[in-house]
Amino acid sequence: MNWDPLILTFKLAFVTTVILFVLSIPLANWLAHSRSRIKPLIETLVSMPLVLPPTVLGFYFLVAFSPGNAFGSWLNDWLGLRLVFSFPGLVIASVLYSLPFMVHPIQSGLSGIPASIREASYVMGRSRLDTLLRVLLPNIKPSILTGIVLAFAHTVGEFGVVLMIGGSIPGETRVASIAIYDEVEALNYASANFYSAVLFIITFCVLLLVYLVNGGYLKRFWR
Amino acid sequence: MISMQVEKKLHAADGEMTLKLDLQISEGHLVTIYGESGAGKTTTLRILSGLLKPDKGLIEVDGKVWYNSERGICLRPQQRNIGFVFQDYALFPHMSVLQNLQFASKSKADKAAMDRLVELMELGALQHRKPQSLSGGQQQRAALARALVQKPKILLLDEPLSALDYKIRMKLQDHLLEAHQEFGLTTLLISHDISEISKLSDQVVVLKKGEITKQGTAAEVFVDEKISGKFKFTGEVLNIQQQDVVFIVTVRIQNQVVKVIAQQTEIQGIKTGDRVMVASKAFNPVIYKMDP
Keywords for this entry (chain B) (predicted)? Predict the structure, then answer.
């Protein structure tokens, strides 16, 4: 059995999740506390991947990153980046595609903390950053875990975007979901079943773990 | 010395209102802000602490400008060094009582001061517990201790005792007075309880719909001039019982329970739980219902 597509899938999901985590905390913090006028606009943009067909996103990435276009050729010439049909391109597309799954749980977690908790920290002379890192984030661990796992799982389950912008280059962009499609097209059901079963079992276990942890079942078990 | 002349437009439940404050508070005084909900009491504390920016005006503390709308000065809450006890206490749930205190402390080295506070607020046995495992009164003590760790000059208390039962309230009032005196604080307190206000405060400020309507000592503010009684106490009606043609009213005054005989006409409109004033006029004590 060829494990490459599965390894690539989890590599992509891992890299995407790490980038999303770093990106989403300041973004979610701003969305949770800002009263800016452009907030609805930003919220809409963050949530768009929830409703937009992945192919739409993939199509525009394909157009934008293509070396035949101004932006794509600029990336190619100046930064030496080719984002079409390459792993870095997949990562960028995945980050945008899974953004709401990381931002939303963290945002709602932060909004759920009473304002007085933040204000108490400010009055003590603690900066905003200090307050975020030492008071707010430690209090929303379940939300952070949910965000990380949902973003990871959602990236694992990605198909349309990858198909559009990544294609199916073995070892580079041929992730498990694409491999399943290819194998079925080739009437190679045994391989398709292998990839499918592995994805099925792993995603089940990961989600089960989240519900066990957030529901406090594990703590009860350890006691 | 705190000097505060500010204006702020507020969106209250019944339309817009303008909070207009002109306050002078001497150093070392304990001042109570009294008024109906929505009168702007909490907003006053938030403006002084820097959590809320007024529309215009001036705030000066010990000759230092904290806020000046004309010169565009507005110190952040972090720069004001104020102790603030929130109505919901706002203890950090993921930290123990001691960690809460340590987080508020500017220097880790100041262990002696921390120990003194733990001792003063009787938190010794509780210091390693998390806030949610504490009772209301214990949380209140922890919050008060935490507000004092940073050695503020000014302490602000937003209805800190309102959720507690009578006995614990009395005890905490003592804690509060003790801390106020020991640390040489200037304290602003929001309270609804007239006996509490009389016991604690040097000065009372009455707010009504965003404006200061009365100022002075508790006796000056709360005693109605119409009554020319020899002695007056405020209390809460615990029970009203009819006995033949008169009524026996049980009233709790501070921590004492007294029985007062009243005529049918006197107790009209008075029911259990009402705040009343018991005053003596010649020989017969008489009961008047007080404004809520």
Answer: ATP-binding, Cell membrane, Ion transport, Iron, Iron transport, Membrane, Nucleotide-binding, Transport
Average pLDDT of chain B? 86
Mark yes or no for CB contact B92/A117 under 8 Å.
yes
Domain span at residue B167 reads: 2-222
Q: For residue A51, what pLDDT is reported?
A: 92
Q: Which residues of B touch A (CB under 8 A)?
A: 49-51, 76-84, 86-88, 90, 92-94, 103-104, 106, 146, 150
In the structure, what pLDDT confidence band is assigned to residue A115 with cuts at 50, 70 and 90? very high
The reported pTM is 0.80
Contact A134 B87 (CB under 8 A): no
Query: A64-73, A196-205, B93-102 — which is least confidently predicted?
Result: A64-73
Instruction: Select from B222, B251, B278 the last residue of a domain.
Output: B222
Query: Does B239 lie in the same domain as B108?
Result: no
Question: Are B87 and A116 within 8 A, CB to CB?
Answer: yes
CATH topology of domain A4-175: MetI-like fold (1.10.3720)
From CA A85, how far away is CA A174, in angstroms rounded? 10
Are A120 and B86 a contacting pair at CB < 8 A? yes
| Chain B residues inside the 8 Å CB shell of A135 | 92, 103
**B170-203 residue pLDDT tens:** 888 888 898 899 889 999 999 888 878 888 889 9
CB contact burial B151-178 (16+ within 10 A = b; e otherwise): ebbbbbbbbbbeebeeebbbebbebbee
Q: Is residue B227 part of a domain?
A: no
The answer to whether the Cβ–Cβ distance between A125 and B81 falls below 8 Å is: yes
Q: Mean pLDDT throughout B43-63?
A: 93
pLDDT tens digits for range B66-93: 999 999 999 999 999 899 999 999 999 9
Single residue among B204, B222, B240 that ends a domain in this structure: B222
- Report which of B81, B59, B84 is spatially closest to residue B70, judged by C-alpha positions: B59
Q: Which residues of A touch B103 (CB under 8 A)?
A: 121, 124, 126, 134-135
Task: Compare all CA atoms of chain B with the CA of A124 and give the residue at the minimum distance.
Answer: B104
A164 pLDDT higher than 50 = yes
C-beta atoms of B84 and A120 within 8 A: yes
Q: Does the complex come out with an ipTM higher than 0.85?
A: no
